[in-house]
TrEMBL record:
Protein name, per record: LysE family translocator
Location in the cell: Cell membrane
Keyword match Membrane: yes
Protein source organism: Vreelandella andesensis
Membrane topology category: Multi-pass membrane protein
InterPro entries linked: LeuE-type (IPR001123)
Highest taxon of source: Bacteria
Keywords in alphabetical order: Cell membrane, Membrane, Transmembrane, Transmembrane helix
Predominant subcellular localization, coarse grouping: membrane
Transmembrane segment boundaries: 41-64, 71-88, 115-136, 143-163, 183-201
First and last residue of the signal peptide: none
GO cellular component: plasma membrane
GO molecular function: amino acid transmembrane transporter activity
């Protein structure tokens, strides 16, 4: 995979990971309720769950491209519509939501269990990855290239939420996030809508 193409993949994965939602709320809750270790545990196990969906999506997209190109195009457009909907939802969001979780006492074991359930229990991740990975998966793609795509999704998702957990160990970070939540939502919304338009235009080369 060319470096320029991988950088595009990494940037889009990072944008998806940083988008406020249930995953962010999960890491915030376990960090505030149990400290740095439960928060980091939630981040790592959530990334593993994301990796499962990324792997399934890469395999499924490769099969669709080869056998049912028209269906692949339809699925891609549905994914783009979902990304646009997420963007509109983010633009309409205020300061509350994922950045205002209720803290409760928690443990690393609870954090791991809930993180996996949140990731695997969210089938919308499949739609997100279809829209995302449709820009990078090709019929002739090697096994190594597919592995790089999946590993990139896992490492960026886990890395971002680990940073969130570590950052929240400092008491000044969360109030700053809460105060600027509306700007985070607005920026995320614009980027998601832009990504949806890019998906409609065609694969990234």
């Amino acid at each position: 995979m060319p470096l320029s193409l991988w950088l595009s993949l990494a940037a889009i994965c990072a944008m998806g990971a940083m988008s406020p939602g249930p995953s962010l709320a999960l890491v915030l809750r376990h960090t505030l309720g149990g400290g740095r270790l439960p928060g980091m545990t939630a981040a790592v196990f959530h990334a593993l769950g994301v990796g499962v969906y990324a792997l399934l999506t890469v395999w499924g997209l490769a099969a669709l491209i080869v056998r049912y190109p028209a269906l692949f195009q339809l699925v891609t457009w549905c994914g783009a519509a979902y990304l646009a909907w997420l963007g509109i939802k983010a633009l309409r969001a205020g300061r509350s939501g994922a950045l205002s979780p209720g803290a409760a006492v928690t443990t690393p074991r609870q954090a791991a269990k809930e993180a996996v359930l949140v990731a695997l229990g969210n089938p919308k991740l499949i739609i997100f990855f279809v829209a995302l990975l449709s820009q990078f998966v090709t019929p002739e793609m090697s096994l190594l290239a597919k592995a790089i795509i999946v590993a990139t999704a896992i490492i960026i998702d886990g890395g971002w939420y680990v940073l969130v957990a570590v950052g929240l160990s400092h008491s000044r970070v969360l109030p700053w996030l809460q105060h600027h939540a509306h700007w985070i939502n607005r920026i995320t919304g614009v980027l998601l809508i832009a990504l949806a338009l890019r998906v409609v235009i065609g694969p990234i080369s």
